[in-house]
Design goal:
Elements lengths: L2 H13 L9 E6 L5 E6 L5 E2 H12 L8 E3 L1 E2 L10 H8 L1 H4 L20 E5 L5 H4 L16 E7 L6 H14 L4 E5 L7 H4 L8 H11 L8 E3 L10 E4 L6 H7 L17 H14 L7 E5 L6 H10 L2 E6 L3 H17 L7 E8 L6 H23 L12 H6 L14 E5 L2 H5 L7 H4 L2 H13 L17
Parallel strand pairs: 1-6, 2-4, 3-5, 7-11, 7-12, 8-10, 8-11, 12-13, 13-14
Antiparallel strand pairs: 1-2, 9-10
Helix pairs in contact: 1-2, 6-17, 8-10, 12-13
Length: about 475
């Protein structure tokens, strides 16, 4: 028995056992080590718990933990001390934590039977925002007087994600927009130095202050992006923090998950701190038009938070490699799970494409990339038949999820291409590559971001990043 096989086996054993017939609800609780415990609601059925325990233990030891907990179990009184707060909380508050009726449990294509009967609770040390099915959204809707929040994410580093953010910030400032750029790559920061800002305090300082006191000093974090020349007054930067010996101590105290068994509606301590930061920025004067988040590469907790819980628009940067394809698909799957169709606004960027747009190699590489991303969106976004959280979607929602044409430039999957440029790989100062950062490749990305960042319509149509021909 392996980790991937345990949950399907629990359901199979229980559903095939006569003693399980009187159970109306079953919840599998999986602990931090991956072991499972069952909490059952049998009402007044009087299910023989010992017989069912023996069947589960015979096949699942050492993965299964005794005893069974719940209501209506014949235990000859031995559960008096065991049926404690865990059992009562699970059975009385099940509607608050059920995760889509276990639609995606296990490995491969296995699906649990009897949706509405089976539920699960997961204890996790990290990656909660990647793993959960709970719906998420930005801190506020897209409205005229609030900043638009844009996350820049890449599964692999070294693909030009931060350089793209710098270009977008610079272009926005050139258009007269106010921008605040925040470095969320707290374990490998670099945005502040790239943009010519040197704040004495940074994001990590704000988060640890908020953890201890519930407050944070926002003005001390913001510094102008002096590397942007004439546009510097319109672009402010919040760096990760000053890299000294104390930085390790602050970083070591960031809690991305929290300690509760049940999902905390207020989120983890870091999530609460980031939301407080966003609220503080939105209420500041002058208020920025855009907040640009430079996310951590890969499946990091801060990347999950910035993508799933903060952004209005998700900019996903990749290149034509198998690693990038697979990472992008995993990211797209998580976003499709967490966001409703109305909150899915994607800008996919293919970085480091061949330089000659007229070459056969350019056509082949960009065509392959576009097809792979379209396949991922078709599987995980366009063709979903059930909303995250197990809720039924309306007919309009389902219609919006039908797959658009692979060639549709207004669809969420369509990649905006940035060609490889040696100067952008080896530059030392942004001023040296200003012309390259205002090239059509980069301006096209900004145009797409601005189109998706328009204030939300009042009707029920999907945003243009999902599926509009």
């Amino acid at each position: 028995m392996t980790f991937d096989e345990v949950l399907p086996a629990v359901v199979r054993i229980c559903e095939g056992h006569p003693a399980f017939g009187g159970v109306t609800r079953a919840c599998v609780v999986r602990d931090l080590e991956g072991r499972v415990r069952l909490v059952l609601d049998a009402g007044n059925a009087g299910v023989d718990a010992k017989v069912l325990e023996a069947a589960l233990s015979a096949e699942l030891a050492p993965w299964f933990q005794l005893p069974l907990l719940g209501r209506g179990l014949a235990h000859a009184g031995r559960l008096a001390r065991e049926a404690t707060k865990l059992t009562a909380t699970i059975l009385d508050k099940g509607e608050e934590w059920k995760e889509a009726g276990w639609r995606d449990v296990g490995s491969g294509e296995w699906r649990a039977p009897a949706q509405g009967r089976w539920f699960r609770l997961e204890r996790r040390l990290s990656k909660a925002d990647w793993a959960t099915r709970r719906r998420s959204a930005a801190p506020w809707p897209l409205v005229a007087r609030k900043p638009k929040i844009v996350t820049f994410f890449s599964f692999k580093g070294g693909v030009g994600r931060t350089t793209l953010l710098a270009s977008v910030a610079w272009q926005l400032a050139k258009l007269g927009r106010r921008v605040l750029a925040i470095d969320l790559d707290v374990e490998a920061p670099g945005l502040a130095s790239l943009l010519g800002a040197d704040p004495p305090r940074g994001l990590v300082d704000f988060l640890v202050d908020h953890l201890a006191t519930g407050q944070g000093d926002l003005p001390s974090l913001r510094r102008p992006a002096t590397a942007l020349g004439d546009e510097a007054p319109l672009v402010e930067v919040v760096g990760a923090g000053r890299l000294d010996a104390g930085y390790f101590e602050k970083l070591a105290r960031l809690d991305f998950v929290g300690s509760g068994l049940l999902d905390d509606p207020d989120g983890s301590p870091v999530q609460r701190g980031l939301r407080a930061l966003m609220d503080g920025i939105a209420g500041s004067e002058p208020c920025p038009d855009y907040i640009l988040l430079d996310s951590r590469a890969g499946l990091h907790d801060v990347a999950g938070l910035s993508l799933h819980d903060l952004a209005h628009v998700d900019v996903l940067v990749g290149r034509d490699s198998e690693q990038s394809y697979r990472g992008l698909e995993l990211t797209i799957e998580a976003l499709g799970r967490r966001r409703s169709s109305r909150d899915q606004r994607f800008v996919v960027v293919q970085a480091m494409a061949p330089g000659d747009r007229g070459s056969e190699e350019f056509e082949r590489v960009t065509g392959d990339f576009r097809h792979r991303v379209w396949e991922a969106f078709s599987k995980h976004v366009y063709e979903q038949e059930e909303a995250p959280g197990g809720e039924e979607e309306t007919g309009a929602d389902l219609e919006n999820r039908s797959a658009p044409s692979e060639e549709s430039e207004t669809a969420g999957h369509y990649p905006w291409v940035i060609r490889y440029n040696e100067r952008l790989v080896r530059f030392t100062a942004l001023a040296d590559v200003r012309a390259e950062l205002f090239d059509q490749d980069f301006t096209s990305v900004l145009d797409r971001i601005e189109a998706l960042s328009a204030p939300e319509a009042t009707d029920q149509t999907a945003p243009p990043g999902v599926n509009q021909e």
